[in-house]
Amino acid sequence: MIIIGQTDYNYHIKTALYKMRKANKRQFDFLLDVFLLFLSIKGKLNFLQLGRYRNQTEQHLRNQFEKSFDYLSFNKELIMENGSGHYTIAFDPSYISKSGKSTSGVGWYWSGVAGKTKWGLEIGGLAAIDIDHHTGFHLDAIQTPNTLESGQLLKYYSSIIIARKEQLQQISNYIVVDAYFSKAPFVSAMNKSGFEVVSRLRTDAYL
Question: Engineering a disulfide at 118: which of 10, 39, 51, 111 sits with its beta carbon 3.0 to 4.6 angstroms away?
């Protein structure tokens, strides 16, 4: 398998990993290989597929993926190295369809596409919006626990952003969210943490 522009990909991945200085040699080599495979394999990505292309057992791959890695810092370094430098942060929860009851975190979550709650998973997606290049870069995805009541969601969403504010504010102090977040508890929490919220008001907003 030949990856077009593999030298460029290698350079950018290595540069980001070197700047982090948090991966040992074994993990460094593993991540470099896996990131290139992500860009190369067509179709479904799973441990079986990765094992075929990497000539290693599924269990070895599972063991490597169980090790912690700061993907937020890695993505931030890639963006800062290759973007325009003119960014804002975007946050939005995203519903993921998932049948069954065994998967950790599975429950009832709001689906904006369906306009109702559905059984599955939810992630809170953080992205850096490159304003000059008119594109978005993924930063981090945080799975929403299924133990939260609806009244706790805004507090939870604000907490995961605040927990990452040191990294995020190196990119931008502005955070873009949809109308669901234009409520005092969320906006106040963001302002106290040094963020400026960009949103639109809800149709039932009380001024």
Answer: 111
Report the predicted TM-score, pTM, of the whole model to 2 decimal places. 0.82
Q: Are 153 and 122 in contact (CB under 8 A)?
A: no
127, pLDDT greater than 90: yes
d(CA 125, CA 138): 8
Answer yes or no: do 49 and 93 share one domain: no
Clarify whether residues 113 and 40 are in a common domain: no
Quote the mean pLDDT of the chain: 87
Domains in the chain, number: 2
| Region for 15 from its dihedrals, namely left if φ exceeds 0, alpha if ψ lies in -120 to 50, beta otherwise | alpha
Residue 75 lies inside a defined structural domain of this protein: no
